[in-house]
Amino acid sequence: MKNAGIFTLRRVPILLLTVWATFLAVSCAEKDIVFDGEDVNVIVEFDWQEASKANPEGMTLIFFPADGKSQTWRFDISGREGGQIELLSGVYNVLVFNNDLPGIEFSNTDNYNLFSAKARSIADSLTSPTGMLYSATLSDVALFPSKDTPQVIRMRPDSLSTVYHIGIDSVNGTQRIKTANAVVRGLARSVCLCIQCNSTDTCCMSAPMHIAQGRTDRLETIATGFGNPDIPDPKIFLDVIITTSHGKYSKTFDVTDQVMNSKHPKDVYINIKDLDIPEADTPTDPDVGISVGVDGWQLIEITYS
């Protein structure tokens, strides 16, 4: 049997097998013989109804034994179509997720109930965009040999990530920009795959911005991260980080309403209007360069990636 987990088949000498068989013959009158399990073939199918545009490079399946004691099995399947696998029979809790996300690291990987995906750190409290995470679970799946056809399990992955479309219109002085970054502060740092619940801890997701094609007065970016943290009254802020030839500046926007009241929670649009890029002799005054209700430019020394 092809082994995809930690379980390892070993060759046992014939003499040892003979001794073991003799021992069983003597002891069977005293207690029943218990088998650890039989090989079972399983066909895994993915139903992408909840995420029809998903096109992952591969999917990872983890079979956690329901008794918490037996062997845990992991399988990596290329593409999104599924395939046939082989493992020992038993009752399992099954977890699946796409395995093509360098912006994510996993924790509590030995626990079905606590298995979590976490945005990867790039510097201090900054994290990289996560990419699109798709996941699904099945509980108490009984897998036992069938003489006719392999058993079939169907899993329906859904997105656990949120796409953030960030745009700034009516930007004055884009010709002075060397680099521009958007940092969204207050998003959930991780998500539990079993219950699909965001964490209470937060992070600052950083993504580079660029001048829109055919629009020299617009900065924009699209980045993926997790949604709102599981806390009362979360606050979400957007820091715009601009580097020019004479310094690095930041401006902060409260975008809580835009994020929390988005029509599509998994597809959020953050729109800002009117922004002046500081010139060399521009003072860092709170009233400089932005519409009413937004803090002014601040000179910073923190390096954002």
Write up this protein.
- Helix content is 6%, strand content 45%.
- By secondary structure, the protein is mainly β.
- A hairpin with a 4-residue loop joins strand 15 (190-192) and strand 16.
- The two termini are 47 Å apart.
- The model is unreliable at 1-35, 283-295 and 301-305 (pLDDT under 50).
The profile of the biggest β sheet is: 7 strands, mixed
* Global outline: elongated
How many helices in DSSP terms? 2
Average pLDDT reading: 84
Layout: helices, strands, pairs:
Blueprint (H helix, E strand, L loop, with lengths): L13 H14 L11 E8 L11 E8 L7 E6 L3 E7 L1 E9 L5 E4 L8 E4 L1 E3 L2 E2 L6 E10 L7 E5 L2 E2 L2 E11 L6 E10 L1 E3 L4 E2 L3 E7 L1 E2 L7 E7 L11 E8 L2 E8 L1 H5 L6 E10 L21 E2 L6
Parallel strand pairs: 1-11, 9-17, 13-22
Antiparallel strand pairs: 1-4, 2-3, 2-5, 5-10, 6-7, 7-15, 8-9, 10-12, 13-19, 14-17, 14-20, 15-16, 18-19, 20-21, 21-23
Offer a concise description of the structure.
The protein has 305 residues and is mainly beta. Helices cover 6% and strands 45% of the residues.
